[in-house]
Amino acid sequence: MKLSAKEIEFIDNYLDNSGVSYADIRMEITDHVASQIENTMQISKEADFYTVFKAYMVKDKAGLLKENKRFINTVTKQNAKLIIKELLALRTIILFLALVFLSNYFINNLSLDSIKLLFAIPLFLMVPLAIAYFICSKKYNFSRFSGVERLAFMFTILFHICHLTSIIMKPNIEAGISTIYISTAFVSCIILIYSFIKVSINIIQSYLLRYKNIA
Amino acid sequence: MNNSKLYKGSLTTIILKLLNESDKMYGYEITQKVKTLTKGELKITEGALYPALHKLEAEGLLAVEVKKVDNRLRKYYKLTENGERETTNKLEELANYIATMQALVNPKLSLE
To answer: Cβ(A29)–Cβ(A37) under 8 Å?
Structure first.
């Protein structure tokens, strides 16, 4: 016996109201609960949907919610791993070294006031990034997918790293620190943003591909 | 997963082995397959199964496919090339473990 669309929607809404807010996690749990209910109703022909659902939730709700929490942690770790992998890729290291070399050349020709403003660039770069993320999440309606939404968390961390670098570097620039340190810190922020953008695009594309057949 | 803590360490191997034998499987299907194969002796709970599946997916051992089935979305898991290699390693590891335990628990039988 198969559950109706209305019954599936009931399970989905129940899980959503219970805190399973990410669509990709809820989808899997909904399917598991629905499959179990169908199986129970198949065995005991007289049992109705709501009775079986209630009995299942009384017994297994705690386990399901625990699984929800674990999944979010796994997704965050997975995103972090992808960014680290991108940072350690040979092409990123080559790009980093090339940019350090180039920026060091330019920084040497800049005035002290201009160098001080240099660390505002990574922070300003993050504004269009945040706008692009917001527009994309609305356009593709993927804002409630765990992997994509956890990117916002990573974005916050990235912003704080760039901001902290700016705070640390400012007195050092005034103290006349070597330009190689300034360019290394500056390029590190740029490379972090670059890796974040690259990984974000990959994650969003993988979600679009995975859910392309689903309206 | 209930029954025994002894089974806990083998959950990944069980999942990989089952996926190795079929093209693709979804979560509930895996729990039912294990239940059937072990005649109800081993029951995998969703709280143990899904974190293990997500971990394997994050490690690149499993690939995922989402399909609409019976009014709902279903997430299917299948082995990647790395997953197939890992399955062979894990099964070998498990066979060695069983042989070692056999030698310890029942030395007479293991010599035969």
So the answer is: no
Chain B residue numbers touching A31 (CB-CB < 8 A): 26-28, 69, 72-75
Identity of residue A128? P
Contacts of A67 in chain B (CB under 8 A): 46-47, 50-51
Provide φ and ψ at B39, rounded to 5°: 55, 40
| DSSP assignment letter at A2 | P
Mean pLDDT of A163-178: 89
CA distance to partner chain A, nearest, from residue B43 (Å)? 13
Here the contacts of B29-38 (C-beta below 8 Å, separation 24 or greater) are B29/A35, B32/A39
Cβ neighbours of residue A148 closer than 8 Å, sequence gap 6 or more: A137, A142, A203, A204, A207
pTM of the entire predicted model: 0.75
pLDDT at position B110: 57
How far apart are alpha carbons B78 and A140 in whole angstroms? 27
pLDDT digits (tens, 9 = 90+) for B51-63: 889 889 888 899 9
ipTM value greater than 0.90: no
Q: How many domains does chain B have?
A: 1
Q: Domain containing B10: what range?
A: 5-111
Residues in chain A whose beta carbon is closer than 8 A to a beta carbon of chain B?
Answer: 2-5, 8, 24, 27-32, 34-36, 39, 60, 63-64, 66-67, 70-71, 74-75, 77-78, 81, 210-211, 213-214
